[in-house]
């Protein structure tokens, strides 16, 4: 056995020091990780234009004929669940609520055996009208993006005046039993970086679970700069000005968020939790358990991968479920040790986050 720089068990090797893939039906890789969490992007379209994700104008959407059909999505998810050990499926975008037939897809996936845990990441626009239907279709958990509580700042970041829709959608989701609603927040220097405490207070009072996310180099404009990113350390320092934070003793596993118990002043009474997803400054690649499917059927082993495996071509070319499963296993076996953001030769993926799926 060998050891890797990720601190994980190595795998048997053959002459030439190339790992040999064990006869294992799961989505294993050369570093001992097992992918059990599938992220499925349903569309690259979005009804917001967040500055850290999209330009104001000029971003072309994927032609509809290139997107996977409902049947193709369900077939691929079924292969993942029944043959490859997928236990969690998260539907993303773009904005997944813009996908026609969404509730039907969710219902069909929730009917799989074994049933995967189903979650959805949304910007919340239109959620107030559909939260009940989403819960009925099988959604177990929701993540809603909210970067500010100030209407004028919301309009600055998203280029749309829709903050009321988002807040109403979050409340509707909780009322529909999609609890806890997790709130995803990106802090931008000089824009909303003074709102960390107020956002956490709001979420604690409303019963939501807040998670701050470091801005990542996945914008369509390729304008990300490390120096402009609000780091995890800065976020935690801001929060500690008002709260006492204690590391959550619960095992993190492959979860992207590092969680902290939030205490009420100096009383020692825990009033909630807050998460920080520090993909850039505190990478958690060694515990990654995710595999990703884009809206046009491309398999990605990592959010920052430069290469993709075309499962759509296999689907439409008549490949069997076994053949697709084998291609999926091979793609994940070749997964890199980490995302490489700190490598001198790092190149941002050609696709933006909106086309990859969060």
Instruction: Name the strands of the widest sheet in spatial order.
Output: 11-12-13-10-9-8-7-6-5-14-15-16
Topology as a string of helices (H) and strands (E) = EEEEEHEHEHEHHEHEHEEEEEEHHH
Q: How large a portion of the residues is in β-strands, by DSSP E?
A: 15-25%
**CATH architectural arrangement:** Alpha-Beta Barrel
Silhouette: globular
Give me the count of strands: 16
Structural class: alpha/beta
Low-confidence stretches: 1-16
CATH class annotation: Alpha Beta
Tell me the Rg in angstroms.
Answer: 20 Å
Mean pLDDT: 90
* Total number of distinct structural domains: 1
> The biggest beta sheet, please?
12 strands, mixed
Assign the CATH superfamily.
Aldolase class I
Number of helices: 10
Helix content: 25-40%
CATH names the topology as TIM Barrel
Structure, explained:
It contains 10 helices and 16 strands. α1 runs parallel beside α2. The longest helix is centred in the first third of the chain and has 14 residues, at 70-83. The chain is an alpha/beta fold and 358 residues long. It starts with 12 loop residues before the first strand and ends with a helix. Mean pLDDT is 90; it is low at 1-16. The strands form 3 sheets. Strands 11-12-13-10-9-8-7-6-5-14-15-16 form a 12-stranded mixed beta sheet. It has a two-stranded antiparallel sheet with strand order 1-2. The protein has a two-stranded antiparallel ribbon with strand order 3-4. α3 links the parallel β7 and β8. 27% of the residues lie in helices and 18% in strands. It has helices at residues 70-83, 102-110, 127-137, 151-158, 163-175, 196-206, 232-240, 311-316, 321-333, 353-356, and strands at residues 13-14, 18-19, 27-28, 34-35, 37-41, 88-92, 117-122, 141-145, 182-185, 209-213, 244-247, 258-263, 270-277, 290-293, 298-300, 309-310.
